[in-house]
Amino acid sequence: MISSTPLKCLVAAGAWALLATTSALAQGTVKIGSVLSVTGPASFLGEPEDKTLKMYVEKINAAGGIGGKKIELVIYDDGGDANKARTFATRLIEDDKVVAMVGGSTTGTTMAMVPVFEEAQVPFISLAGAIEVIDPVRKYIFKTPHTDKMACEKIFENLKQRNFTKIAMISGTDGFGASMRAQCVKVAPTYNVQIVTEETYGPRDSDMTSQLTKIKNTAGIQAVINPGFGQGPAIVTRNYAQLGMTATPFYQSHGVASKSFIDLAGAAAEGVRLPAAALLVGDKLPDSDPQKKVVVDYKKTYEDTAKQPVSTFGGHAYDGLFILVEAMKRANSTDPKKTRDEIEKTKGFVGTGGIVTMSPTDHLGLDLTAFKMLEVKNGDWTLVTPGS
Prior knowledge:
Layout: H1 4-27, E1 29-36, H2 43-62, E2 70-77, H3 82-94, E3 100-103, H4 107-120, E4 124-126, E5 141-143, H5 148-161, E6 166-172, H6 175-187, E7 194-201, H7 209-216, E8 223-226, H8 232-242, E9 250-252, H9 259-265, E10 273-276, H10 292-306, H11 312-331, H12 336-344, E11 349-350, E12 355-356, E13 372-377, E14 380-383
Parallel strand pairs: 1-2, 1-3, 3-4, 4-5, 6-7, 6-8, 8-9
Antiparallel strand pairs: 10-13, 11-12, 13-14
Helix pairs in contact: 2-11, 3-4, 5-6, 8-9, 11-12
């Protein structure tokens, strides 16, 4: 009979060796978390974000990682559910011990996670659109997409150029739609724009004909704006055309800045204008534009790998990941507090969304020049000529 004592010692030694190996591996990796809406109603946001993070983490690791440490990417799918997002955020902090987070596909899921990362003092770079993510400024919270306020301003700027002063709005009641609607109401007087009438629709509504009919029957409307994201704006666009309203200029938000919107809206999308990142028209930018190489390279990499058209949403993930990685390299550390400080010092970062310069009072770092006004023509995105 074999004594159990040596066996116990062997098992204990083996367990210690495994623990030591695991610890060594952990020391050699950088754990970055992500909570995305890969499935569910916001999957058109989360899916390209998920694909982008995975493909570029692989590239970064192949090139040596961050200071010789490989990135370990921990991704959870919240399905667009804010409660699930908060649960996963807590798991990333307490169980996975991540040192930073790039994620949050929607405004609703992002805002559910903000308190978790702020309390844990772990930097969180959000991919959501609403201004409330970074206004007021929170020490550990940043974001990459242009804000809903900026979208309103860019649209109103174009309205002013066209001498349009009386508009209608039909807004989604989702987090982003409601936030953008509030921002447009707030900034409209600055541009001498009067919102004559308003309508809303819910995220599950499948027909907005009645709301649009009310707008159509309101006298004096010169243009219509649709704050919203997801399938709702595509339905509104189709209903708009069905009611014969296309003679009145129609504006969407950057919340639909992907080819899937054109596909869903079909021929009705023709003539629709919206502010969006240069990524959608990268090949149309002059060679002198500093963003051209970045957006053209990202578009090719994404489409070659993912086998689907590029969207600005994946671009937001690209920007967030590289802002984070460059901050860690400058800090020569993956310590959350040191990383946070360097993210805030980001200056002149050329991304898919624009040229980013952050500060203690600006955790976005983009201005209106980062937005392009686009119009759908012949089923594709085209640049609107300045002044038109």
